[in-house]
């Protein structure tokens, strides 16, 4: 087995008020995988994600990205390798134009001139937003802003793209467009979501985090089809939705 691109071992974390959020989490994700991180509110999902690029530091255990430990001395490189797209795109978009936002990260890495322009154009092209490069982000729709937020991370050419509730507040067309974009990317994806049909559509593998520990890890259809597992961890599919009757993640609509 090749080295995981994301290697979390025995990760534990307690907040200053004494609340223990993680109790020895193990998670291994390999290059090119798309993995959904599922679990009820308060399960520790956000705490886990914030350890992946060093926003939080481990109380015990370790996190490594392609063999590079997530430690204070490695933060700059770790944050280039692990890009987090937050639930609210307005938390990431703060510059006068779309182009300014997307070039912010690579500019801080030292890119200039044609190399910087190429990185920005490539990232905007991946999310279909090139024609909006000179627009103010606040003039865009919510779905367009989310795509620009993804581009700000892709411009850094990360090894891992972490998405926090990517489908939230999107209309059906924007939801589908984002799904098509995520399927097209040549990058490892970890998607934190309560949208279980979206997880099934995009992620062949899911991990359920509950009470600060991993309680299940396996093929998404198997986990979502386990009624006892789902009920015991407060996960519910939409009424009438049967995961056994949905095509495999990544399948084209024409093939379903």
Report on the architecture of this protein.
The protein has 256 residues and is an alpha/beta fold. It has a single domain, classed as 3-Layer(aba) Sandwich (Rossmann fold), CATH 3.40.50. It contains nine helices and ten strands. The chain has helices spanning 45-52, 75-81, 98-108, 113-126, 142-154, 172-184, 196-202, 220-224, 227-232; strands at 6-14, 20-29, 34-38, 60-65, 68-69, 82-85, 160-164, 188-192, 205-210, 213-219. The strands form two sheets. Strands 6-7-8-3-9-10 form a six-stranded mixed beta sheet, with helices on both faces. It has a four-stranded antiparallel beta sheet with strand order 2-1-4-5, with helices on one face. α6 (172-184) links the parallel β7 (160-164) and β8. α3 (98-108) packs across α4, α3 runs parallel beside α5 (142-154) and α4 packs across α5 (142-154). The chain is globular. The two termini are 32 Å apart. The relative contact order is 0.16. Keywords: ATP-binding, Cell membrane, Membrane, Nucleotide-binding, Translocase, Transport. Probably part of an ABC transporter complex. Responsible for energy coupling to the transport system. InterPro entries: AAA+_ATPase, ABC_transporter-like_ATP-bd, ABC_transporter-like_CS, ABC_transpr_CbiO/EcfA_su, Co_trans_ATP-bd, ECF_ABC_transporter_ATP-bd, P-loop_NTPase. Its main location: membrane. GO terms for molecular function: ATP binding.
